[in-house]
């Protein structure tokens, strides 16, 4: 999972031919630099991931006022399994529709769950100025995973490092994700920044709560 800071996934729409699960009623007003850290390891079924996880991520982005302005939000994404893959930087896409389209292309590749590598990469690279990071807005890391990390001790160290660098972190666990590890990754108090659902289809059940907290 990912960092102890403050912020995670939120709620509400999709792209093109997909069906909206919840009506879009509001948008987050505060600007932020938001990076999704997404588990694509072998324990995840591609069909469920494509149908539920990607929809959830798109719904969250749809709540943000995405754009290049100083009062707008920028979005980046990293996926991880055995290795870390940069999907797109904070300055790769400045239109919400482009971010949604990029998310729709993310695919499960299989492999182990090296959450620590992803957190280390994000803390060192994603919020830099050259990659679109800004010094005057909140840095938010949103970790979505369905299992325990392959290197738990290193994961906790890298989460702490990310928090020390100023990142706010929400951890979202699905299914067999380790509850203790989720708490150790999330910002404090865990009751506000850690979420757990039974399966990917249940992500809808936390969308409203996440949206409200992210919009704070």
Automatic annotation (TrEMBL):
Residues 33-210 form the VWFA domain. InterPro entries: ECM_Assembly_Org, VWF_A, vWFA_dom_sf. The keyword Lipid metabolism does not apply. Residues 1-21 form the signal peptide. SMART domains: VWA. GO terms for cellular component: extracellular region. It is found in: Secreted. Keywords: Glycoprotein, Repeat, Secreted, Signal. It comes from the Eukaryota. PANTHER family: COLLAGEN ALPHA, VWFA DOMAIN-CONTAINING PROTEIN. This is VWFA domain-containing protein. It comes from Candidula unifasciata.
């Amino acid at each position: 999972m990912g960092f102890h800071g403050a912020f995670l996934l939120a709620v509400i729409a999709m792209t093109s031919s997909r069906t909206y699960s919840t009506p879009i009623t509001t948008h987050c007003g505060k600007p932020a630099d938001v990076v999704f850290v997404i588990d694509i390891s072998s324990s995840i079924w591609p069909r469920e991931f494509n149908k539920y996880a990607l929809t959830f991520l798109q719904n969250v982005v749809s709540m943000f006022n995405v754009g290049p302005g100083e009062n707008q939000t920028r979005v980046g994404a990293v996926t991880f399994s055995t290795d870390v893959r940069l999907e797109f930087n904070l300055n790769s896409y400045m239109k919400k529709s482009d971010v949604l389209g990029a998310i729709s292309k993310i695919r499960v590749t299989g492999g182990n769950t090296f959450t620590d590598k992803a957190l280390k990469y994000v803390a060192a690279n994603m919020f830099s100025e050259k990659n679109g990071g800004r010094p005057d807005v909140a840095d938010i890391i949103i970790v979505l995973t369905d299992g325990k990390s392959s290197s738990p001790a290193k994961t906790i160290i890298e989460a702490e490092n990310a928090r020390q660098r100023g990142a706010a972190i929400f951890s979202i666990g699905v299914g067999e994700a380790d509850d203790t590890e989720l708490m150790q990754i999330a910002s404090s108090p865990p009751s506000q920044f850690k979420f757990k659902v039974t399966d990917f289809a249940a992500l809808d059940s936390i969308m409203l709560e996440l949206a409200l907290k992210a919009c704070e």
